[in-house]
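Tutorial, part two.
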Amino acid sequence: MLKIAWSEIFAHSLPEGHRFPMAKYDLLPEQLLYEGTITEENLFAPTPLTERFILDTHDANYWQRLKQLELSPSEVRKTGFPLSEQLVQREVVIMNGTVQAALFALEYGIGMNIAGGTHHAFTDRGEGFCLLNDIGIAANHLLKYKSIKKVLVVDLDVHQGNGTAQIFEHEPRVFTFSVHCGHNYPFHKEQSDLDVALAEGTDDKTYLGLLREHLPRLLDEVEPEFVFFQSGVDVLATDKLGKLGMTIDGCKARDRMVLELCKQNNLPVAVSMGGGYSKQIAHIVEAHANTFRLAQQIWF
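Running the prediction step on this input gives:
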């Protein structure tokens, strides 16, 4: 059964002025339920992640200062959100959403989080709407507690997964693969195990050709036992924060390629939604919804 992390806190703990396009966290499950792609049984509400699992990835001093709302004004500005207790609580729930999705993936082949993809969070700081790194925390959870020996992170958000790259720069059991717009945030890039920097305006054909060139080869060479897929839809040409030229159909073809390769290779995959900032919320919801539709079609 497809299991999907969702909680009202995903959308309703954000400050005024930051709720669009975060409305997608409510609209997406509503759309999937309405069209019959999922039922209520597919959804699970994660609880806050236990602190010791956060500390397997994040610096203890940073976590304590974040939890006590003691970040400096400069640190807060870099996150893009006004810091609040509700915001930290939201992040901790999102973290467990991806951890639980990963555990469901071990059982069912795939698990998904309607939020997550917080790949700009470093071990000791937050950036770019990310306070903690859900893929980092969930990958470390599998390595430490579930005897997984090799993880592949497939980050296809329009922005480089700089925080994830930093977290695992000295961890040979995790291979980080990021396909992103080269001339876009973050302007200082970290070094993933493999970075593919795309030119502005890259279209569907070029993007899919590059992904087809790299991903099957990585699966053969890295030989992962588990995949984390960051499926941001800010690759769309309509996105306000992205600079690529992809269509909704191209984004769907991207997701199909990743998910079908995982299924064909018997690789469990945990999917986090990542970014999406198109002017029309319908474009965001439709692009994200395709990822869930494909998961149902391919696995169930």
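The radius of gyration is 17 Å. In part three we will examine how such features are distributed along the chain.
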